[in-house]
Amino acid sequence: MLVSSIRRFFLEEDGLTATEYAILLALVIVVGVVAARSLGANTAHAFQALDAATGPADLYDAEYTSTLR
Predict the structure, then answer these.
(1) Is position 37 within any domain?
(2) 59 against 2, higher pLDDT
(3) DSSP string across 8-34
(4) What average pLDDT score do residues 31-42 get?
């Protein structure tokens, strides 16, 4: 019974129904969330590595500020 229902589902060529659109939308959302989380983690790691490599910023540079006067 279940196998014949699945076979019939894949053999129908009537076009997409609302259920099929909902399944497609759910898959697109899942892929988008996974990609965003992965990209966010990789970006955070890259900025942390850059921060560790450059060290703290020197916000006051006496030589530079004397040339501005």
Answers:
(1) yes
(2) 2
(3) HHHH--S---HHHHHHHHHHHHHHHHH
(4) 87
Mean per-residue pLDDT, 17-43: 88
In order of 3, 15, 29, the CA distances from 11 in angstroms are 12, 11, 26
Residues 6+ away with beta carbon under 8 Å from 16: 24
Measure CA 53 to chain center: 26
Tell me if 60 is assigned to some domain: no
Query: Which residue has 């229902």 as its token pair?
Result: 5
DSSP class of residue 68 equals T
Within-domain flag for 44: yes
Tokens standing for residue 11: 């053999």
Q: Does the residue 6 lie in any domain?
A: no
The number of distinct structural domains making up the chain is 1
Domain range enclosing 35:
17-53
